[in-house]
Amino acid sequence: MAKTAMDLASGLGGNIDKKEVLSAVDQYEKYHACHGGDEQARKENYTDMVNKYYDLSTSFYEFGWGESFHFATRWKGESLKESIKRHEHFLALKLGLQPGMKVLDVGCGIGGPLREIARFSSTSITGLNNNDYQITRGKVLNRVAGVDKTCDFVKADFMKMPFSDNVFDAVYAIEATCHAPDALGCYKEIYRVLKPGQSFAAYEWCMTDSYDPKNEEHQKIKAQIELGDGLPDIRTTRQCLEALKLAGFEIIWEKDLAVDSPVSWFLPLDTTQWSLSSLRCTALGRLVTRNLVKALEYVGIAPQGSSRVQSFLETAADGLVAGGRKEIFTPMYVFVARKPLSTSASPSSGAQ
Ligand SMILES: C[S@@+](CC[C@H](N)C(=O)[O-])C[C@H]1O[C@@H](n2cnc3c(N)ncnc32)[C@H](O)[C@@H]1O
User: Fold this and answer.
1) Cβ–ligand 1 contact at 187 (below 6 Å)
2) Which residues form the SAM-dependent methyltransferase Erg6/SMT-type domain (predicted)?
3) What count of other Cβ atoms lies within 10 Å of the Cβ of residue 198?
4) What is the CA angle 109-240-92, rounded to 5?
5) Which residue lies with its CA nearest to atom 10 of ligand 1?
6) How far is residue 67 CA from its own chain's centroid?
7) Which string of DSSP letters, residue by residue, matches 2-20?
8) What's the pTM value of the predicted model, to 2 decimals?
C-alpha cells in the first residue's frame, strides 16, 4: 500500500532522537568524499555510518520506492513493482530454493524481498540486519503478510554473524554486502554459515570494467553514490569475484544483468523521464516530496535535518543515473557461488 505523508513523517530519523537528527546528518555527510571525508574513516566506522544512513533514509525509501530497497532488470510494459518482484523470484530460482529450506537473507532491509521470496518458494527465511529501526518495521510487515511464524529477523553485523557453522541451506544478499568494509571478510562469514554443497547468490553494487579510477568525472559519480547510499567504497565486479574465490566459493554463474536489461534499471530515477508507476521518483514527484518535507519540517512534524536527507538522496539519484548511463556502475552484478562439498582446503586469508 502506498505510504502517506504522515507515514513518511512518522519514520523520519528512524531510531535517532528527533532532536539529534540534524547533527546526525552533519556527522553522516562528513564521512563522505563530497564533504571532505575519507575511505579509511568510512571503513573503520562502517557500523555508525551505515546505521545513521538507514535511520535517516528508510522512511524516504518506503515512501518513494516500496518495501524492497533494490533495483531490477525490467521488460517493456512491466511496472517497476512487477519488475522488482520478478528480480526477487529470479534469484530464488537461481538458488534452487525448495519448500522447507532454511534460508538466510543478508542485509534484509525491512524484509520486502524476504516476504516475497518466502511466499514464492515456501522457505523459512531469517533476515539479518544491523539496523534496529528497519527490523522493527520488518516485524510489523511480516505480521501483516502472515509470514511471522516461518520467518524471523536477527539484529547483527554480517561481518560477525551470531550463527554456528554450516547451518543454512541457502544464502542470498540483495544490494547489501556492498556496505561491507571488506568483501572478503563478509563472504567468508557467509561461507562459514552455509552448509557444504549449498549456494550463495547475490546482486552486488559494483563499478564495472568501464570505470576509470583516474577519471575525475568517474570519481565524482562514485563519490555521489557512496554519499547517497551509505557505502564505504564501491568495489569493482572483478574485486567481488576475486573475494568470492578467496573465501573458498566455486563460481557457478556470474553476469552483469544491467548490460541487457530491455528497460534501464535507472529509468525510475531519471528526472528527464515521466512515469505514472513510479511517480514519486520523477522530477515532479521529487519536487512535491521536497516541498512536503520542507513544510513538515517547518511546522515541526518532521525533525530538523529531514530536508538535508532528501537532498543527499537526490545526489544519490543523480550519481546513479550518471553511473548507469556511462555504464561505469551496476547495482545488479549477479552471481551464484557454491561452497564445495569437501571443504578440506581452508579459505585464503588474503586481504581485499
Ligand atoms: C540497500 S538495503 C537492501 C535491503 C534489502 N536487501 C532489500 O533489497 O530490500 C541494504 C541493507 O543492508 C543492511 N546492512 C548494511 N550493513 C550491514 C551490516 N554490516 N550487517 C548487517 N546488515 C547490514 C542495511 O541495514 C540495509 O538493510
Assistant:
1) no
2) 53-340
3) 18
4) 50
5) 176
6) 12
7) PPPHHHHHHHTTTTS-GGG
8) 0.93
- Does any ligand 1 atom lie closer than 6 A to the CB of residue 52? no
Angle at 226 between CA 221 and CA 230, to 5 degrees: 155
Count CB neighbours of 6 within 10 A.
10
pLDDT at position 352: 42
- For residue 107, the CA-to-ligand 1 centroid distance in Å is 3
- Give the 3-state secondary structure of residue 175: coil
- At position 268, the amino acid (one-letter code) is P
Assign 3-state DSSP to the chain and report helix, strand, coil percentages, each to 5.
Answer: 50, 15, 35
CA angle, 35 then 38 then 44, to 5°: 125
Cα gap 27→345, rounded to integer Å:
43
How much is the average pLDDT of 36-48? 94
For 137, other C-beta atoms within 10 Å of its C-beta total 20
The whole-angstrom separation of Cα 255 and Cα 309 is 33
Q: What is the mean pLDDT of residues 277-302?
A: 75
Measured distance CA(240)–CA(178) in Å, rounded: 9
Cell matching residue 236: 569493482
β-bridge mates for residue 152, sequence order: 126
Q: How far is the CA of 344 from the centre of ligand 1 (A)?
A: 31
Atom 26 (ligand 1): residue with closest C-alpha?
109
Single-letter code of the amino acid located at 176: A
C-alpha cell at 131: 539496523
Amino acid identity at 72: A
Residue tagged 567468508 (cell numbers) = 188
